[in-house]
């Protein structure tokens, strides 16, 4: 992908005009190198400055200069394919310059200091608490990742989550706290909430325990009250605002699992992440077995014993891989 296409994608992302596939494409590009990440952060800083209502005299001068340069570009006969590329290039130049110049004059032309980020990752079966620079506390669920700056800016607090985490945010009305998770941005001033954006889980959810949050999804935004959850089903694109069971949603913090007549195939991921195992079903019927159980910090053998009774099921364990099936004559659990 050419550089101007990347810059156009970034500016469209910042304007919340990108699709889910484009967000994935951009995230892949950012992760390819530290230089790409610095470029993204610099353009994001320019964009944020462009959202301020004030404009300096230098901004007006620079803006007139840009318009003059664009006007001086006399059209020349070109081939159709080249004409298209030149149009895209002019669109890229105009968008980038105008975004930077309107908000911060010629600030984007000056190298911005690179933002130093720290990353915390957890493995399956591992949880970790992270104290952020502002004093906020994040409990990171198994198989999750949190990326955050070593020092927050004076105007906002931005963190990036892949997986699941529980946030206890220090109140600061002058610096909004934002959690970026997939296509969602959850903004708060000070509150307690859970964000679940596990890759491959089929849904994203923000569950508010205390305070208020605002969730932005591209062009839409939703306000939540305590006890409310915003849930998006990836397969259908539907978004629901509903009440939730706090013990079920946040129980993972104390190794508590709550299942309410749910298919084993739908909740297998929770068991896998919490205990660091892999569940393998013998057939589709086994995955359809429904569970109604609560596990309070139970060891894995106790969970497996309960699964036997639910189906009934039989299991065979080989290291960290557990094979599950509906029993036939001659099968026995190990």
Automatic annotation (TrEMBL):
Keyword vocabulary terms for this entry: Membrane, Transmembrane, Transmembrane helix
TM spans (from-to): 92-109
Organism lineage: Bacteria, Pseudomonadati, Bacteroidota, Cytophagia, Cytophagales
Record-linked InterPro entries: FecR, FecR_C, Ferrdict_sens_TM
Keyword Transferase: no
UniProt domain FecR protein: residue ranges: 119-214
A Pfam family recorded for this sequence: FecR
Domain of life of the native organism: Bacteria
Name of this protein: FecR domain-containing protein
Protein's UniProt keywords contain Protein transport: no
UniProt domain Protein FecR C-terminal: residue ranges: 256-323
């Amino acid at each position: 992908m050419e550089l101007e296409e990347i810059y156009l994608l970034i500016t469209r992302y910042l304007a919340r005009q990108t699709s889910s596939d484009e967000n994935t494409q951009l995230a892949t590009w950012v992760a390819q190198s530290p230089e790409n990440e610095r470029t993204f952060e610099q353009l994001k800083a320019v964009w944020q400055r462009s959202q301020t209502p004030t404009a300096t005299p230098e901004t007006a001068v620079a803006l007139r200069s840009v318009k003059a340069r664009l006007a001086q570009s006399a059209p020349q006969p070109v081939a159709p394919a080249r004409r298209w590329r030149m149009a895209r290039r002019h669109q890229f130049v105009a968008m980038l310059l105008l975004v930077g110049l309107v908000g911060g004059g010629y600030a984007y032309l000056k190298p911005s200091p690179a933002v130093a980020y720290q990353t915390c990752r957890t493995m399956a079966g591992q949880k970790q608490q992270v104290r952020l620079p502002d004093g906020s506390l994040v409990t990171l669920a198994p198989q999750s990742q949190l990326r955050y700056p070593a020092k927050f800016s004076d105007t906002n607090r931005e963190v990036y989550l892949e997986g699941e985490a529980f946030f206890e945010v220090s109140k600061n009305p002058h610096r909004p706290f934002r959690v970026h998770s997939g296509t969602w941005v959850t903004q708060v001033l000070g509150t307690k909430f859970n964000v679940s954006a596990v890759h491959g889980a089929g849904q994203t959810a923000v569950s508010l325990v205390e305070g208020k949050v605002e969730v932005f999804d591209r062009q839409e935004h939703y306000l939540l009250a305590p006890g409310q959850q915003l849930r998006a089903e990836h397969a259908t694109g539907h978004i629901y605002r509903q009440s939730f069971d706090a013990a079920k949603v946040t129980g993972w913090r104390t190794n508590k699992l709550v299942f309410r007549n749910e298919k084993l195939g739908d909740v297998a991921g929770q068991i896998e992440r919490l205990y660091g195992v892999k569940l393998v079903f013998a057939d589709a019927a086994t995955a359809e077995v429904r569970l109604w159980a609560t596990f309070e910090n139970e060891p894995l053998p106790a969970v497996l014993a309960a699964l036997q009774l639910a189906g009934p099921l039989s299991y065979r364990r080989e290291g960290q891989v557990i094979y599950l099936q509906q029993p036939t004559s001659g099968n026995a659990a190990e």
